């Protein structure tokens, strides 16, 4: 039987700049995501000079900040980190849905990886669990995805 060709990205340092676009709202959770993402990039050989952190007020503002980064920095990848925690009104649905949709559109428009590490959770407890305790750290996962996608796109000829 003939082997099937497979192509995938690897988790190792890539050329270019990695920009973390971070929402300050819910910083008690988000800062753990930032620490996890930076640590992951550094462990995989990305130098401190290749990393920039851009801070926006909250999840609603993240897509505009990402768009400006994509236009002005031409990064290898953008890692977006934030936290939207459900409250007692429909505000959660609007913010989380629009943020996620806009980030997806930007990635496709610019053809640059936009790793989505924006937590959209029902409770504070879930946010804490996903920022470095029981459920892992979504900042780490977003950094892993960014590295893998940069290397995959390089392999595919981007």
TrEMBL record:
UniProt cross-references to CDD domains, sorted A to Z: Lumazine_synthase-I
The entry's keywords: Riboflavin biosynthesis, Transferase
Binding of 5-amino-6-(D-ribitylamino)uracil, residues: 25, 59-61, 83-85, 116
EC number assigned by the record: 2.5.1.78
DNA-binding recorded as keyword: no
Gene3D superfamilies noted in UniProt: Lumazine/riboflavin synthase
One Pfam family per UniProt: DMRL_synthase
Pathway field: Cofactor biosynthesis; riboflavin biosynthesis; riboflavin from 2-hydroxy-3-oxobutyl phosphate and 5-amino-6-(D-ribitylamino)uracil: step 1/2
Domain of life: Bacteria
Chemical reaction(s) catalysed: (2S)-2-hydroxy-3-oxobutyl phosphate + 5-amino-6-(D-ribitylamino)uracil = 6,7-dimethyl-8-(1-D-ribityl)lumazine + phosphate + 2 H2O + H(+)
InterPro entries assigned to the protein according to its UniProt record, in alphabetical order: LS (IPR034964), LS/RS (IPR002180), LS/RS_sf (IPR036467)
Primary role: Catalyzes the formation of 6,7-dimethyl-8-ribityllumazine by condensation of 5-amino-6-(D-ribitylamino)uracil with 3,4-dihydroxy-2-butanone 4-phosphate. This is the penultimate step in the biosynthesis of riboflavin.
Similarity field: Belongs to the DMRL synthase family.
Name under which the protein is recorded: 6,7-dimethyl-8-ribityllumazine synthase
Source species: Marinospirillum insulare
């Amino acid at each position: 039987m003939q082997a099937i060709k497979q192509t995938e990205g690897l988790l190792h340092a890539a050329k270019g700049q990695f920009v973390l676009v971070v929402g300050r709202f819910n910083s008690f959770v988000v800062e753990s995501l930032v620490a996890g993402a930076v640590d992951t990039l550094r462990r995989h050989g990305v130098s401190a000079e290749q990393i920039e952190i851009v801070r926006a007020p909250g999840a609603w503002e993240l897509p505009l900040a990402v768009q400006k980064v994509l236009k002005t920095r031409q990064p290898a990848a953008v890692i977006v980190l934030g936290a939207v925690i459900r409250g007692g009104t429909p505000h959660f649905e609007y913010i989380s849905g629009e943020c996620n949709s806009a980030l997806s559109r930007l990635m496709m428009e610019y053809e640059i990886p936009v790793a989505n590490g924006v937590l959209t959770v029902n409770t504070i407890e879930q946010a804490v669990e996903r920022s470095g305790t029981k459920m892992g750290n979504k900042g780490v996962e977003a950094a892993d995805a960014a590295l893998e996608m940069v290397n995959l796109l390089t392999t595919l000829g981007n």
